[in-house]
Design a protein that fits this description.
The protein is globular. Helices cover 54% and strands 7% of the residues. The chain starts with a strand and ends in a 9-residue tail after the last helix. A 5-stranded mixed sheet has the order 1-5-4-2-3, covered by helices on one side. By secondary structure, it is an alpha+beta fold. The chain has 2 domains: 3-91, 3-Layer(aba) Sandwich (Glutaredoxin), CATH 3.40.30.10; 102-249, Glutathione S-transferase Yfyf (Class Pi), Chain A, domain 2. α4 (102-117) runs parallel beside α9 and α5 crosses α8 (169-189). α1 links the parallel β2 (17-21) and β3. The model has no long low-confidence stretch (mean pLDDT 94).
């Protein structure tokens, strides 16, 4: 589980559930959907990542990578969206978001971890290259602040590429190939079934629907070749958790 020790000790006094998140962040969407599925009360700490509100010493003191989301539960700080939603389901088990059957649960975890694994190698590069990269460009002062605060080598390299060098056509093609492989497998899996793992809605569905949403909204990724995926997305979009966790936080200017 992604528990960290914050240097911003103010959060240690937080009681209840507090979420640092952003409306455009697909990882934040996962956590908001899980909170809404559980009908839990939570305190919002919204950060506009387009305006770089997360690039501050105060927030890096909460999340050492400066990423959203971060969950603080009674002073315990948890980072990484897959760890957060897994923690929430364990801590608040009703209604359950993991299949009872071991085989289905293993399938759920495989898709949950796969969504996380392709985030930096495919999802972010494709979205940045297609649209959002220019909007996320840093001023000189912002760049200096980020370089000073960020200690993660992978994120520093992504920052360098996205703000200075830009993503090449080869980068975009590679990212799309990874996404195509994932959604083709998902298309086949969803043939004759409603959900990604077993017969019930689960954390696997929560992990993937924000990727579908942001890839389509921000990058123009087409799902025309995946009718089963599109039908699955429609089923998920009818849930109250999707409306409250995704649509209600999506900024009008996007």
């Amino acid at each position: 589980m992604g528990v960290v020790t914050p240097t911003n000790t103010a959060v240690l006094a937080f009681e209840g559930l507090h979420l640092y998140h952003s409306g455009v962040s697909n990882c934040s969407m996962r956590v908001r959907m899980t909170l809404e599925e559980k009908q839990l009360d939570w305190t919002s700490h919204h950060l506009n990542i387009i305006k770089k509100e997360h690039i501050t010493p105060e927030y890096f003191g909460v999340n050492p990578k400066g990423l959203v989301p971060t969950l603080v539960h009674d002073g315990t700080v948890i980072v990484e969206s897959d760890d957060i939603i897994d923690y929430l389901d364990d801590t608040f088990p009703s209604p359950p978001l993991k299949p009872a059957n071991n085989e289905d649960r293993n399938t759920m975890y495989a898709w949950l971890h796969r969504a996380t694994a392709i985030h930096m190698e495919a999802v972010k590069p494709f979205i940045y290259a297609k649209r959002i990269g220019k909007r996320m460009a840093h001023s000189t002062d912002e760049d200096e602040t980020y370089q000073r605060l960020q200690k993660n080598a992978e994120l520093l390299e992504f920052h360098r590429k996205s703000t200075q060098e830009g993503f090449s056509d080869e980068d975009t093609i590679l990212a799309k190939d990874i996404l195509d492989d994932c959604f083709l497998e998902m298309e086949q899996l969803l043939d004759g079934r409603d959900w990604l793992s077993g017969e019930t809605f689960s954390l696997a569905d929560i992990a993937w629907v924000p990727l579908q949403f942001t890839l389509e909204k921000l990058a123009g990724y087409s799902f025309d070749a995946y009718p089963n995926v599109s039908a699955w997305k429609k089923r998920v979009s009818e849930r109250d958790s999707y409306k409250r966790g995704v649509l209600n936080w999506w900024p009008a200017e996007m």
